[in-house]
Amino acid sequence: MRTRLKATEPFVFHTRFNLQELTGLKAANIDQLLRHIKKVPSSSIYHHTHRFAEKHHRLSLVSSNDFAYWVGEILGDGMLGEKLAGIDTVRFRTIHDLREAIVGTIERHLDEERGSRRMFVYHGAEFYFVKSTSVILSTRYTACTLEEFTRLLKKVSTNSIYFHVFEARLRLEKRTNDFSYWLESSLGDTELADRISRLDPYIYSLEGLRKKIIGLLEKRA
Amino acid sequence: MASIKDYRPIVGRSVIEELELLAAHLKGVVVQNINSTAVGGGVAEILTRFIPLLRELGVDARWDVIKGDRRFFEVTKKFHNALHGREEEIPDGIYEFFLNEGARIIDETDIYGDIVVVHDPQPIMLVRKKRRDGKKWVWRCHVDIAHADKRVFAFLKQFIMKYDGVIFSSPLFSRRLALRQFLISPSIDPLSDKNKEIPQETIDSVLKKYGVKRDKPVITQVSRFDYLKDPVGVIDAFNLVKKYNDCQLVLAGNSAADDPESDKVLSEVREKACRDPDIHILLIPPEQNDIDINALQRASTVIIQKSIREGFGLVVSEALWKAKPVVASAVGGIPLQVEHQRGGLLCRSVEGAARAVRQLLNNPEYAGWLGRNGKEHIRQNFLLTRHLRDYMLLFIALYHGEDIIHL
């Protein structure tokens, strides 16, 4: 049975927690926002583009990023807000590339829509740059077969799923998510690895993503 | 006192497991908390709940209280008000007095923690005891310093900058400082009298006690009678709503406020209410406050919080925890708690508040959806367990400078 085939390396489920640190930087208009986006640490870009994914454990809401939300809903530039929300985060392999895409989107918009520069927000509604410190720990859950892996995936926290899917791929700059990497390298299941890797995790809630991956694993069994 | 295991049915097994996992990495570390009062006030309330839970998890958390005389606390009260942005006369010599009295407090306080968490401005000077011995010092600022008096902040800054880090409750309080600033939001305790599940009979008896009938929708604001909570604005909004929707308003506040201004506000509120039988102005006795507020919130159709300024405004989390649709001003920590159009509605004016309330009264399905979403948001982000987790993460992060910490 494929599900009982022993992996060459066990999969150790890790979990990850986020501690937020304030940078003391804030923006009240689009020029200030752009200036800071160019300079803040990558942990801040990561925080503001992944907070939504991390926060919505159960709710299935359309993912967005903090820049898009603030520009569209608070600053009131709906068009730029939409353009920023449309940045396809899953395409990027590094925070550096993601930052460049955000900067490029804003700069192109400012070239086309000069009125955007005149918008500003009142005191208290500024964009506050926060950065994310990740604390990563291994859990006691270890899988040696696909069967065990599926069983444990139902049990681990959403923090663990978040870590292996989002953080491992983009923040730790691994080629793919940890699940796909293990399925391919330790179980030799390239097809299943590829199916999970092709999911766009940003459109699911974390519980929704768990269900989707478990569905693919069970279908394979 | 609740045990950590009592939170498992509310937040899930994995959340408690993860707290235990983090705590295991803090074994042997002594965390010394220092504040200025053992009872009364928000900080003492937090520490009373936190210390036993941290200890149950295996973290050696302890709590010490500094001793100051009446004059010292009068001075620190002035600092507190000035940090909150209130105009405060700071007479000559007050800083010198604080430094002299502070020197005595420094002498009398034993520092034994590996991590020393100093709460609020009163004991801030203790950091002068910091040595190059590897102990970590953090200042926990529970005050809204977004509009802080510049002179008082500048005076306190000489101490703040000696700490290894500072903790704020909201990004709005951050500023450009050459030290680490951590963001840890406050939380509500889902097992406290104010938030726990209560039987329908209790809700009914509380409504009966205050003469509130359930024959029409109930809009409620829970707050002190304070200008900054804008109870008069709430009545204005209610009157706009009432033109189209038959409903009633409950303004529930504590009668124990020692603030002389509250009587003035209360009489203005009564005048504004014009003996309208649909407006219930309730003064809740302090000894019944928590259960009664809990019942009133649970009996409400819509909960409003039309504050002009807020430190954090945890009353909003309390309302959302009861899955109530909320209309709240976009001030202080409220936008962190209410995700506009996802877990409640934000407003900035009387007209905006009225429109949002009408939207909810006339679209009960939408209102229900917002309430349920809001409750989940609170479950994930504003319960005591998240607060405990953040503190443990902070203790760990103090020993690491990097953005990604592998334990």
Key features?
heterodimer, A: 221 residues, alpha+beta, 2 domains, two-stranded antiparallel ribbon, 2 strands, 51% helix, elongated, B: 407 residues, alpha/beta, Rossmann fold, six-stranded parallel β-sheet, 15 helices, 43% helix, 15% strand, globular
Question: What would your notes on this structure say?
Answer:
With 221 residues, chain A is of the alpha+beta class. Chain A folds into two domains: 2-16 and 134-220, no CATH class; 20-130, no CATH class. Chain A is built from ten helices and two strands, in the order E-H-H-H-H-H-E-H-H-H-H-H. In chain A, strands 1-2 form a two-stranded antiparallel sheet. The radius of gyration of chain A is 19 Å and the shape is elongated. The relative contact order of chain A is 0.21. Chain B folds into two domains: 4-187 and 383-397, Glycogen Phosphorylase B (Rossmann fold, 3-Layer(aba) Sandwich); 200-381, Rossmann fold (3-Layer(aba) Sandwich). Chain B is globular and about 65 Å long.
Helix/strand-derived class of chain A? alpha+beta
Which descriptor suits the 3D outline of chain B? globular
Tally of alpha and pi helices of chain B:
15
SSE string of chain A, helices as H and strands as E? EHHHHHEHHHHH
Give the terminus-to-terminus CA distance of chain A: 8 Å
Q: Which two chains have the most extensive interface, and how many residues on each?
A: A-B, 39 and 41 residues
| Unreliable residue stretches of chain A | none
Strand order of the largest sheet of chain B: 2-1-3-4-5-6
Unreliable stretches of chain B = none
Give the quaternary arrangement of the chains.
heterodimer
